[in-house]
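Below is how a single chain appears once it has passed through the pipeline. First comes the sequence as given, then the structure the pipeline wrote out for it. We keep one example in the README because the format questions we get most often are answered faster by looking than by reading.
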Amino acid sequence: MLDLKLPQFPNTELHIALFEEVANVAELRDNVANLPYSFIDARSVVSKEQLLSAIYRALIEKQYNKLRTMTLHSEFILCLSPNSNIGESFKKFGLKEDSKAVIVLKATTPDETFDKEELLSLMHGKEVEFSNEKLLSYADINLIKKNYKLTGFEPESDEDLSAALVHAIQLRGL
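Resulting structure:
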């Protein structure tokens, strides 16, 4: 699990976990609105930078009272998307029926606590290291290129692909 505070948002702590072989995706999907987490299909993420770009964008939206969704956790998923359609964002980046690798994101403020044991009991899967290497092993590059409308784009490296995705996230809505 990756626990971090972003220097620009010192009152928010982030907890990011990656699970594989998740067996209760249907249950999680049914209860996603009632759970204080973001659940992201790992096939749609290639790097920590891509995810952190969406997190930064969502935190900025929150800071300026511009959230488009009901919660910060749903805003994280919207901010992964290169467009502003909330429903489409959840279809492309949220849990799918066949999701097996899942990124779980929890944001807390100083008056909130994070219970890792609660998260571990919720997830029926194996927690693995949250790293670029692991993310790349789950990433569906063709799906990602389709989601971000990068047809014809052939990155020279994983870093080039990650940069293109970060740019798409930052340019959304401009």
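The chain has eight helices and five strands.

See the next section for the split statistics.
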